[in-house]
Design goal:
Layout: E1 2-5, H1 9-13, H2 16-28, E2 32-34, H3 44-48, H4 56-66, E3 73-76, H5 79-96, H6 99-109, E4 112-114, H7 115-122, E5 135-138, H8 142-147, H9 153-159, E6 165-167, H10 182-185, H11 187-204, E7 208-211, H12 214-226, E8 232-235, H13 236-241
Parallel strand pairs: 1-2, 1-3, 3-4, 5-6, 5-7, 7-8
Helix pairs in contact: 4-6, 5-6, 11-12
Amino acid sequence: MRIALFATCLGDTLFPEAVKSTAVLLARLGHDVVFPPQQTCCGQMHVNTGYQREPVPLVRNFAEQFGDPSIEAVVMPSGSCAGSVRHQHEIVAERYGDAALCAGVATVKTKTYELSEFLVDVLDATDVGAYFPHRVTYHPTCHSLRMLKVGEKPLRLLRAVEGIDLVELPEADVCCGFGGTFAVKNAGTSSAMLRDKTDHIVGTGAEVCTAGDSSCLMHIGGGLSRIKSGTRTLHLAQILASTRTAPYALTEAAR
């Protein structure tokens, strides 16, 4: 397949390794991965904060960059951005766009996927040849769980990873407290939610907490670092891209 990779804002600025790992993994599975260079923010943060008119240019650009008929799928290492493209873009286009934008959004949304659902639902792949001999726990992010309803797909992928010691996270489906600007505007509540999450993670004895969204991992990682837990965060794509011949060097990773 010819797959277009969407980097996301956080992937581009703070977590490029998650984006690179997504490309490496898809290429290893035999697909042609392309990167439209004019891609920008999908507009999720604007809509989530209540500004639905402002992201119209971003939504239009997304539809233009990824609407190429030769692109068979648009894949991103982010459940929240995939959710935005599949659900919020249509709302923005219908309220503040035009007929051309509505048509473009409708075309792109049908071929847009979060990484785990693309691997499992489209490629019918759970064993992707990954190797990661570490104790890992998985946090299901809110948008992937509730908006995209990816369910067990990330866990199915993780269970097939060679060498992994996958441990269940207590109260896994409870929000980590990030929520974008929620963490800033409601810092006290956000911090309390985060502490509950980090306590559960530490209780598993996991070396790594993984998830499908860099935003949640940024929030959780900060909390784990502040309590000097020794547990690291790592995007699902980086675990799946790790192999016996090219293993992810966890001992050299930044905390």
